[in-house]
Amino acid sequence: MKPRISMITLGVKDLEQSVKFYKEGLGFPKMESPPEVAFFALNGSWLGLYGRESLAEDASVSSEGNGFNGFALAHNVSSEIEVDQIIEQALSAGARLSKAARKTSWGGYSGYFKDPDGYLWEIACNPFFWVGPKDEDA
């Protein structure tokens, strides 16, 4: 297996609300998609949104569960100001603040928000190395 993630698919309760959050709120570019799913082009991968029940059924697992999902999505930026700006943008779009941005124990700066379905997003600035594509517009 080659080390990459082609797509991350989130099981969502309200597809329309989640599409609005990611497309209008965060400005993610939405691709043409069938009505029951939404795809967003990220730099080198895709984000998929699919009904929670349907995604669980597709994977042959229970859709029950709440609280901590056991992972966080991360978006790295080049400055503390960008961290603050993106978290504010997400909150304005309907996200819930999970952890206000602050200096970290590892020497960076980060904060967390939850999307409309409670998925955690960490917005971080790591001054020691860049995590992500080399493209400055990423």
Structure description:
This protein is of the alpha/beta class. The chain folds into two domains: 7-58, 2,3-Dihydroxybiphenyl 1,2-Dioxygenase, domain 1, CATH 3.10.180.10; 72-125, 2,3-Dihydroxybiphenyl 1,2-Dioxygenase, domain 1 (Roll), CATH 3.10.180. Helices cover 23% and strands 31% of the residues. It has three helices and seven strands. It has helices spanning 15-25, 52-59, 80-92; strands at 7-12, 37-41, 46-51, 72-77, 96-103, 109-114, 120-125. The strands form two sheets. The protein has a four-stranded mixed beta sheet with strand order 4-7-6-5, with helices on one face. A three-stranded mixed beta sheet has the order 1-3-2. It is globular.
Give a summary of the structure in a few sentences.
The chain is α/β, with parallel strands linked by helices and about 140 residues long. It has helices spanning about 15-25, 50-60, 80-90, and strands at about 5-10, 35-40, 45-50, 70-75, 95-105, 110-115, 120-125.
List keywords for this structure.
three-stranded mixed β-sheet; 3 helices; 2,3-Dihydroxybiphenyl 1,2-Dioxygenase, domain 1; four-stranded mixed β-sheet; alpha/beta; 31% strand; 138 residues; 7 strands; globular
